[in-house]
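Worked example 2:
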Amino acid sequence: MKPPRAGTTENLSVSMPTDLVSELRSRAGRRGVSSYITEAVRHQLAMDGLAEIVADHEAEHGALTEQEIEAAHQELFGDGDARRAGQDAA
Protein backbone atom coordinates (compact mmCIF):
# COMPACT_ATOMS: atom_id res chain seq x y z
CA MET A 1 0.00 0.00 0.00
CA LYS A 2 1.36 3.42 -0.98
CA PRO A 3 1.70 6.11 1.70
CA PRO A 4 -0.79 8.97 1.28
CA ARG A 5 0.43 11.97 -0.70
CA ALA A 6 0.43 15.44 0.80
CA GLY A 7 -2.95 17.03 0.28
CA THR A 8 -4.85 13.76 0.13
CA THR A 9 -7.64 13.07 2.57
CA GLU A 10 -8.77 10.07 4.53
CA ASN A 11 -12.23 9.34 5.89
CA LEU A 12 -12.43 9.16 9.66
CA SER A 13 -15.35 8.26 11.86
CA VAL A 14 -15.70 9.96 15.25
CA SER A 15 -18.36 9.86 17.95
CA MET A 16 -19.50 13.04 19.69
CA PRO A 17 -22.33 14.01 22.00
CA THR A 18 -25.45 14.94 20.04
CA ASP A 19 -25.59 18.50 21.38
CA LEU A 20 -21.98 19.08 20.33
CA VAL A 21 -22.70 17.79 16.81
CA SER A 22 -25.67 20.13 16.56
CA GLU A 23 -23.60 23.15 17.55
CA LEU A 24 -20.75 22.03 15.25
CA ARG A 25 -23.08 21.88 12.25
CA SER A 26 -24.53 25.25 13.12
CA ARG A 27 -21.11 26.93 13.45
CA ALA A 28 -19.48 25.17 10.50
CA GLY A 29 -22.01 26.64 8.11
CA ARG A 30 -20.98 26.88 4.45
CA ARG A 31 -17.36 25.85 5.04
CA GLY A 32 -18.59 22.41 6.12
CA VAL A 33 -18.05 20.16 9.09
CA SER A 34 -14.92 18.48 7.69
CA SER A 35 -13.20 21.81 7.09
CA TYR A 36 -14.19 23.09 10.53
CA ILE A 37 -12.90 19.98 12.29
CA THR A 38 -9.70 19.98 10.21
CA GLU A 39 -8.92 23.54 11.32
CA ALA A 40 -9.81 22.72 14.93
CA VAL A 41 -7.42 19.75 14.90
CA ARG A 42 -4.66 21.84 13.31
CA HIS A 43 -5.12 24.46 16.02
CA GLN A 44 -5.08 21.86 18.80
CA LEU A 45 -1.93 20.24 17.40
CA ALA A 46 -0.22 23.64 17.35
CA MET A 47 -1.30 24.29 20.96
CA ASP A 48 -0.02 20.85 21.99
CA GLY A 49 3.31 21.64 20.33
CA LEU A 50 3.56 24.94 22.19
CA ALA A 51 2.70 23.23 25.48
CA GLU A 52 5.51 20.74 24.85
CA ILE A 53 7.97 23.58 24.19
CA VAL A 54 6.96 25.31 27.44
CA ALA A 55 7.15 22.05 29.41
CA ASP A 56 10.64 21.33 28.02
CA HIS A 57 11.77 24.87 28.83
CA GLU A 58 10.36 24.70 32.35
CA ALA A 59 11.93 21.27 32.96
CA GLU A 60 15.32 22.75 32.11
CA HIS A 61 14.99 26.29 33.53
CA GLY A 62 12.15 26.20 36.06
CA ALA A 63 8.69 27.74 35.86
CA LEU A 64 8.17 30.79 33.69
CA THR A 65 7.96 34.05 35.63
CA GLU A 66 5.12 36.54 35.24
CA GLN A 67 7.59 38.86 33.50
CA GLU A 68 8.52 36.16 30.96
CA ILE A 69 4.86 35.38 30.33
CA GLU A 70 4.04 39.07 29.88
CA ALA A 71 7.00 39.56 27.51
CA ALA A 72 5.86 36.59 25.42
CA HIS A 73 2.30 37.93 25.37
CA GLN A 74 3.49 41.33 24.20
CA GLU A 75 5.66 39.71 21.54
CA LEU A 76 2.73 37.69 20.24
CA PHE A 77 -0.19 40.07 20.69
CA GLY A 78 1.18 43.56 21.21
CA ASP A 79 -0.43 45.52 24.02
CA GLY A 80 0.23 43.73 27.30
CA ASP A 81 -1.78 46.28 29.29
CA ALA A 82 -5.03 45.05 27.71
CA ARG A 83 -4.34 41.58 29.10
CA ARG A 84 -3.61 42.94 32.57
CA ALA A 85 -6.73 45.16 32.48
CA GLY A 86 -8.86 42.13 31.62
CA GLN A 87 -7.46 40.28 34.64
CA ASP A 88 -8.11 43.25 36.92
CA ALA A 89 -11.73 43.45 35.78
CA ALA A 90 -12.39 39.80 36.71
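The helical segments are 18-28, 33-61, 66-77, 80-89. The chain has a mean pLDDT of 87.
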